[in-house]
Amino acid sequence: MNENMKGKVVVITGATSGIGQVAAENLASMGARMIQIARDRGRGQEALKRLCERAPDVAHGIYYADLSRLSEMKRVASEIAEAEPHIDVLINNAGAVFGFRQLTEDGLEYTFALNHMAYFVLTDGLRERLVASAPARVVNTASDAHEAVTLDFNDLQSAEAYRGSFLKWLRYGGAGLKVYGRSKLCNILFTRELARRLAGTGVTANCLHPGFVATRFGDQTGGLISFFFRFAKRFALSPQQGAETLVYLASSPEVATVTGQYFYKCHSIKPSREAQDDAMARRLWAETARLVHLED
Ligand SMILES: NC(=O)c1ccc[n+]([C@@H]2O[C@H](COP(=O)([O-])OP(=O)(O)OC[C@H]3O[C@@H](n4cnc5c(N)ncnc54)[C@H](OP(=O)(O)O)[C@@H]3O)[C@@H](O)[C@H]2O)c1
């Protein structure tokens, strides 16, 4: 057994299912102590049980939070920061796609809140712990869905994106996919700016595209997108294959000092031109900090 994560503490979101579940189990098998953030107690306890079966001698932990709500993101980050003096790796992975526009209790568009804001708020809340634990890593699950879209700072909450003509809708394969793609573009821009801000601290930040993976992703989306996902998953990678790059970025000595990069199949590749725009990354950071009521 590869035990190069023995004694390391890994915080992970979205590990009750799919890519995150497999990554958490593999990292536990490599000796890591896993601290999960889940929203559903039933699925959370099942996931914890599986981890304990993999590594019975390790005290894995679990916290509960709905990562679409700002108050929950902040609460769970501060609870973990309080309880865990040492964190080696933070994996921001929980995410979803939605067929229709919904607002969270904070008035944020749901995809933006869950897929982008939660990465930002959790990382901000655990930043001090990561820096104090350096060398440490932040790994963000992004997607190649970012390639088809651009970011509209006048419409970050996607009020306009869900309107538009039928032709525009067809071109993007549905407004939900477009809004999802934008949230994943945010993940890459966030990673880029985070890496810049963490320079010299010994904490790296990288993101990845896992490939198209047959998980629960898209199942509860509703409308035509659900139908599309159900059909397309017949040709998708397994969750085991989809978790490979995530596990690699969290654990491999090969990438111990690599930062600010976007990975696919365990290799650094170039994301879209817009995803490499440092001015845009800085602007997104400032806008997000404003929405979270944090100092930039
Ligand atoms: N599957 C793909 O083809 C693909 C491709 C590119 C990128 N990705 C990205 O990979 C990541 C993982 O997706 P997956 O494919 O593994 O999907 P999945 O099987 O649906 O898993 C999603 C995970 O996110 C959690 N989650 C969803 N909403 C949440 C909330 N409000 N609060 C807390 N946790 C929440 C889910 O918890 P529950 O168990 O409670 O639902 C689950 O653990 C996502 O960021 C996704 O964008 C996936």
Description:
The chain is of the alpha/beta class and 296 residues long. The protein has ten helices and eight strands. It has helices at 18-29, 41-54, 70-83, 110-132, 166-172, 175-198, 223-232, 239-242, 244-251, 278-292, and strands at residues 9-13, 33-38, 61-64, 89-92, 136-141, 203-209, 262-264, 267-269. An eight-stranded mixed beta sheet has the order 3-2-1-4-5-6-7-8, sandwiched between helices. The model has no long low-confidence stretch (mean pLDDT 93). Bound molecules: NADP nicotinamide-adenine-dinucleotide phosphate. NADP nicotinamide-adenine-dinucleotide phosphate (NAP) is lined by residues 13-20, 39-40, 43, 66-68, 93-96, 114, 141, 143, 209-210, 212-213, 215-217. NADP nicotinamide-adenine-dinucleotide phosphate (NAP) binds next to helix 1.
Biggest sheet descriptor: 8 strands, mixed
Mean pLDDT: 93
Bound molecules: NADP nicotinamide-adenine-dinucleotide phosphate
Number of strands: 8
What best-fitting shape do the alpha-carbon axes yield? globular
Structural class by secondary-structure content: alpha/beta
Give the N-to-C terminal Cα separation.
Answer: 43 Å
Give the SSE layout:
Layout: E1 9-13, H1 18-29, E2 33-38, H2 41-54, E3 61-64, H3 70-83, E4 89-92, H4 110-132, E5 136-141, H5 166-172, H6 175-198, E6 203-209, H7 223-232, H8 239-242, H9 244-251, E7 262-264, E8 267-269, H10 278-292
Parallel strand pairs: 1-2, 1-4, 2-3, 4-5, 5-6, 6-7
Antiparallel strand pairs: 7-8
The chain binds NADP nicotinamide-adenine-dinucleotide phosphate (NAP).
